[in-house]
Design a protein that fits this description.
The chain is mainly α. The protein is 59% helix and 0% strand. It has helices at 24-33, 38-48, 52-77. It is globular, with a radius of gyration of 15 Å. It starts with 23 loop residues before the first helix and ends with a helix. Bound molecules: zinc ion. The site of zinc ion (ZN) has 5 residues, from helix 3.
């Protein structure tokens, strides 16, 4: 019994809509997982819609998360 599901926690990274975050990959991951604070999420959304670099990071993060989730579901689906 080691489940540590404490719910999604908002992460504040001080993202600004007119510049790339320092850690684009991490921000993209958190954004895809819905763990950014509401303000940060909106700022990053505004930003990556006009920034191909960050838009690509979001796309990669999304594909990664989907793959992880599918793998997880596959494992849960089968009884060990
Ligand atoms: Zn950017």
């Amino acid at each position: 019994m080691a489940s540590s599901a404490s719910g999604p926690r908002a992460v504040e990274l001080h993202i600004q809509p007119d510049m790339c975050p320092d850690n684009v990959c991490e921000v993209a991951d958190l954004y895809t997982l819905g763990r950014l604070a509401a303000d940060e999420e909106r700022n990053f959304e505004d930003h990556y819609l006009t920034c191909p670099n960050c838009a690509r990071a979001v796309q990669l993060a999304h594909e990664f998360v989907v793959a992880i989730r599918l793998a997880g579901e596959g494992r849960l689906g089968r009884s060990r």
